[in-house]
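Researcher: Before we compare anything, I want clean individual predictions. No alignment, no superposition, just each chain on its own. First chain goes here; please echo the sequence and then give the structure tokens.
Model: Echoing the first chain and its structure:
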Amino acid sequence: MVRKRKSKQRKKRNGHSCWCCDHFLPNERFGGKGHRLHLCKSCQRLPQEERDFRSERSNLYRCVTWDGIIPKKRRKQFNRFLQHANPKIRKIAQQLQREDQLERARLNRDEREFDEFSGDVNLDFDIAVYDWRWLDDDELASYR
């Protein structure tokens, strides 16, 4: 008897995920302590400096939302990367900070434009009156 998967259930993956290369690999690609460390054999062979760089880079990207904004809660953690010893990490952090400033400026501009647009709309109407067909001409004129 074949059991069908329910539509909301995910297919279970076989293997492990490697945090370093961000791939989902079969168990055979993980050797020794690799299962516990979530580090595949090819990433275990990398020099320690490269693994440290990848770890710090992933920590840096965790500070940024999908929209490219650095929230206030993560600013203190993010500022640590701006003074990082590795110049590559500093460069990535500076690029992310510029993108954050541009995105915040765009959002502020959009918000100002919305406020200017919504200032023209008259919102002083009774919520109970939801259909203009039931209004008298005088009441309808008062909302214009």
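Researcher: Okay. Second chain, same rules.
Model: Second chain and its structure:
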Amino acid sequence: MSPGLREIEAEVEYLTMDEIRKLLETPLNDDLYKRVVLLAILTGLRFCDIKYLTWKQVRGERDNYYLQFRQRKTYKPQHVYISNQAFDLMGERGGPEKTVFPKVNYNYTRNMLKAWPREAGINKHLTFSCLRHTYQPYNSIMAQISILYQNY
């Protein structure tokens, strides 16, 4: 970086527990997309990693599930432990080469992430990046989010 230039850190948007509760309380016509959003919050995965996640990358057993995959953006291998609730959001297990969410569409997801929060009374520009950042500060209290999800 040039000596005269300073790096400006971008502000990071994330959802509060109250905002996650509002989302869960707000109906969404498409259960698939609600599950994808909640999975992103519970795991911190990027949209592309969720979209291309296959069942052979979902490993383990109850109380010890994990994802083992190579990130699509960085090509780095990942080993991510997930909760039982995150696993349940994936639905019925398919064949090893089948994608977990074969019908997920980026443009539809982007549009839904504008409308759903607005209907929930959340005044933030919600993106998948925001969902990833939501995971980081709440990683230690993911159990609370899982409990919230069970109630809705």
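Researcher: What stands out in the second chain?
Model: The longest helix spans residues 106-119. Additionally, The chain is about 45% helix and 10% strand.
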